[in-house]
Amino acid sequence: MIIVLKKNAEEKDVERFTGEIKSRGFGIHLSEGTDKTIIGLLGDTSKLDPEDFLANEIVESAERVSAPYKMASRSFHPANTVVTVGGGQSGIIPCCIGDGKTVSLLAGPCSVESEEQIISVARAVKKAGARILRGGAYKPRTSPYSFQGLGAEGIRLLEKAKKETGLPVCTELMSVTELEYFDNVDLIQVGARNFQNFDLLKELGKANKPVLLKRGLSGTINELLMSAEYIMANGNENVILCERGIRTYDNYTRNCLDVSAVPYLHKVSHLPVVIDPSHACGIRWMVPVLAQCAVAAGADGLEIEVHCNPEKAMSDASQQLTPQQFEELTTKLNKYAAVEGKCI
């Protein structure tokens, strides 16, 4: 349920009103805008009648929210959420995702393979315009015989690349037991296979770090938003949604990129939306085309895989761009973004 307060409501009256609601066992999500203040009620509101709140002189309207997700809903939080990655650190260039002015690029190799590899890629993607370095330290793979990543050593190498370039880093967390190694990671990624690992999501709700939440292989939009709700309901509202392609009946590409997810998510939620064209298609030459589509659809960012020598990559070789291809793409994306009044 959401309750909209009158514009001239005094602070003491708002505090008294919210205090009464809390005393009845409900949680409160307060969203203060320039024109109105919205109170979102958290908990079982099925027995509450919206009409009962209208008797209070500071209440303008009250209505039920039909969506099962509350904190991720735009009804609860009309203004766009802007997630800052890497802020407050000396020598690190912060990146704001969802500000409506920029299309933020997260770029780097699928897997961290060596110190030389990750630092050379980090320098190249920064030069081309990337704002965040991505790289997998822990790798969930379909086959147990495939390269599984360097683990904690991979995170240490990401930290070196971070110091070298000033780029915040993003890497995937697969298990709660690995969280202790993520102190210096700026953006924690939850991969498609873990997007409904609810114990992991709850722990990330307690972590003071932004989370990039990827849609599952066969996940619906509602399921993605409910997974975001798990993180937010546990205290962490810095969530970025990521569309990375879903599994369909055809297999000419690795997955099927759901571009329509971007405008729909922006309509129903206030959270930023990023697209990963690399995992969506799994084909190098298609990545730039899908990236252009993502910008046109209004994506707040792009996560793109880049490797200095893709043919020798230890994972996902066929979908990673070379630094030169990535630089050519960012030049083109700037023109597409300009049409939307944005920049890379």
UniProtKB/TrEMBL annotation:
Key words of the record: Transferase
Single GO biological process annotation from the record: aromatic amino acid family biosynthetic process
Domain named DAHP synthase ferredoxin-like: residues: 1-66
All residue ranges annotated as the DAHP synthetase I/KDSA domain in the record: 95-336
GO molecular function, one term: transferase activity
Segments traversing the membrane: none
Protein name as catalogued: 3-deoxy-D-arabinoheptulosonate-7-phosphate synthase
Organism from which the protein derives: Treponema porcinum
